[in-house]
Amino acid sequence: MTAASPLILHHLNNSRSQRILWLLEELGADYEIKHYQRDAKTNLAPQSLKAVHPLGRAPIITHGDTTLAESGAIIEYLIDEFGGQFKPTSNREALNQYRYWMHFAEGSLMPPLVARLVLSKAKEKASPFFMKPVVAKVVDAITSAYYGPNLKASLDYVDSYLKENEWFAGECLSGADFQMSFPLEAMQGRVGKGQYAAIDAWVNKIHSRDAYQRGLEKGGEYAYA
Fold it and tell me: pTM score > 0.85 for this model?
């Protein structure tokens, strides 16, 4: 890779790649954006993303001969590549929190959010019509027995943590905050605002940052801001 190697973010609207745009703006990185649009009917990513990475899921970055997917991996790569300013190094506890929240975002918080979304879509699209009440009953039972309580426990924990901490890993903005931004924005979009005051305040805080607003302007359509 040479110093002149272009950094390209393959950006899908209404997706996790918005947090990568925010990070790139905070870093002051020189980068290009290639825009991709979700299918209007299925809401899935276009097949053209598979030409960049076999799984065809955003975000993806290409940087010289490096192609990298998965938000957490991309965040860590970019932080390392551009000087390490958003990774705690001198404080052991902050570093431990950094590692924890980097994994918590997709390992614990996103799965019940995604499951609730998929189940709600199944409930809406149940066919034939006389099956709708049956499907609705099954979906509601699954949600109330597992996904609902699981999500509530995670959100209660995050909200409690943010009542005591300004950022997710130490006293400064870090990669953990970029990683946690999408699930908390998505939660607000699907569960609503007003139930978790500390989460709402944290999301408002990141949305007020100049770099976040620049990323939003460059990224285009984003339903969660």
Answer: yes
